[in-house]
Amino acid sequence: MVISSIDLKDGKVVQLKNGKDKVLERDNPLELIADFNKYGEVAVIDLDAALGNITPKGTTANTEILKSLLRHGNVRVGGGIRDVKRAKELISLGAEKVIVGSAAFNANPTDGNILNTAFLDELVAAIGRQRIIISVDAINGVIAIKGWTETAGIPLVDGAKAAEKYASELLFTCVEREGCMTGTNMELVRQLREAVSCRLVVAGGVSSLDEIVELESLGCDVQLGMALYTGAVSLKDAFIGCLNWKKVDMIPVIAQSVAGEVLMMGYANKDAFEKTFASGKLTFWSRTRNTLWTKGETSGNFLEVVKLRVDCDRDTVLATVIPHGGVCHTGSWTCFTAEAEEASSLERLYQIIAQRFANPTPGSYTATLTGERVREKLMEEAEELTEAEDHEEAVWECADLLYFMNVLMYQEGVTWKQVLDELDRRHKK
User: Fold this and answer.
1) Catalytic status, residue 27
2) Catalytic, out of 121, 137, 249, 400
3) Residues paired with 254 in a beta bridge
4) Are 135 and 99 in contact (CB under 8 A)?
5) How far, CA to CA in Å, does 338 sit from each of 263, 324, 330, 341, 348?
């Protein structure tokens, strides 16, 4: 599958040729990640950090942009990660994985110690092997370091075989072809694929859908930059092309809500995926009617697509959607329950409160709550909770407290995602 790349330099999104010459520049990173994340993971690379363009405070021209991107998708981060503290900080800010390059290797080793094992051992202990990607970038088959400005004197395959012990995946960039749109070095890719068993991501020079599908057939993912920004490859075509059509004629698609509730399952062929991406509404192939079927085309209860993800075998798709009405033809909220309405959750409560303020109905208590009044009620309910005399009373007071807290959150523009992201950050700090 394709991992879209957002490379940052001087506060802009850029694409460089051979890691040096700027070919294009964009200033809409949030728009880009909103689009890229629909199709798969996103790699955000701080090129200034990789090149050592860092202030005394440890920041770069891209720091604030980078932070804003980290909670907008399934993001991996690379560029100038040279110590464990920085790696832990990025994970706490929302990165799912970190990409380390130069810091993983000993430049020009003379005693056979290819890797900086002291750093890698500490890194694994701090964040876990599953969160680590080691970049085995190479110039003419030799590991490149320091923002690709030097080589380490380490043959690519040797470096990759040694690095695999410390990483869940390896990222190989063919530096001499980076940004050139001439195709990657398939011979080196095959050597790498035979040498290592972990996930392998290929970058540098990939320029066509055929090449992406060929790499997929070898068991490699692709991190795509130039071909994506120039329009040579579309993420839609790459997503569909990389599904395992040799194994199955119809791909099972599981629809789940943003909150993680499983809603339904159906089957899709290539045409169904095409229509899903074109319309933004989840579309299937009806095996009984032998035709395309967009969920909600009759009832109006469509499924708005947020993102699609494939499983490890590329033969099942998980669709994260926003349901507009009940999902099941029986009238139930999901195809797996008899409930007519969405299950209670903090997010659902928040949305109901938002609706009450946006479209107040006569007699709505929620719509009458001012900022001052809701703060008074919060203090009152918190006190009543601490004074609850039994379990039933505690449950009642917890419900009251959560209601008024949701009202205040809405009035202050604080979402549950932001709150949970902050708790996640503290946990990973």
Assistant:
1) no
2) 137
3) 265, 318
4) yes
5) 12, 17, 8, 9, 18
Cα dist. 204→176, 184, 359, 364, 377 in Å?
8, 6, 52, 58, 58
Can you tell me the distance from the alpha carbon of 6 to that of 99, in angstroms, rounded to the nearest whole number?
14
Q: Which amino acid is at 317?
A: V
Q: Any idea of the CA torsion for 346, 350, 351, 354, to the nearest 10 degrees?
A: 170
Taking CA atoms, 174 is separated from 42, 49, 88, 138, 147, in Å, by 19, 20, 28, 6, 13
**3-state DSSP percent of the chain in helix, strand and coil, to 5:** 40, 25, 35
Indicate the SS3 state at residue 309. Answer: strand
The H or E element spanning position 30 is: helix 29-36
Q: Which of 82, 125, 86, 126 is nearest to 107 (CA)?
A: 82
What is the rounded distance in angstroms from the CA atom of residue 414 to the CA atom of residue 404?
A: 13
User: For the CA atoms of the chain, what is the radius of gyration?
Assistant: 25
Return the residue matching tokens 């900080």: 89
Token duo for residue 339:
């409930």
- Print pLDDT tens along the chain (429 aa): 999 999 999 999 998 887 778 889 999 999 999 999 999 999 999 999 988 899 998 899 999 999 999 989 999 999 989 999 999 999 999 999 999 988 998 877 767 788 999 999 999 999 999 999 999 989 988 888 887 888 888 889 999 999 999 999 999 998 888 877 888 999 999 999 999 999 999 998 899 999 999 999 999 999 999 899 999 999 999 999 999 999 988 999 999 998 889 999 999 999 999 999 999 999 999 998 999 999 998 889 999 999 999 999 999 999 999 999 999 988 888 999 887 778 888 888 898 899 899 988 888 899 899 999 999 999 999 999 999 999 999 999 999 999 999 999 999 999 988 898 888 888 887
Active-site residue (options: 7, 46, 48, 221): 7
Active site residue 137: yes
Q: How many helices and strands in the chain, by DSSP H and E?
A: 15, 19
CA distance linking residue 243 with residue 39, whole number of Å: 12
Tokens coding 347: 């997010």
Q: How many CA atoms lie less than 13 Å away from 344 in the CB half-sphere?
A: 3
What are the φ and ψ backbone dihedral angles of 343, each rounded to 5 degrees?
A: -65, 145
Quick one: which of 324, 337, 192 has its CA closest to 264? 337
What is the rounded CA–CA span in Å between residue 284 and residue 271?
9
- 208 closest CA partner among 176, 188, 237: 237
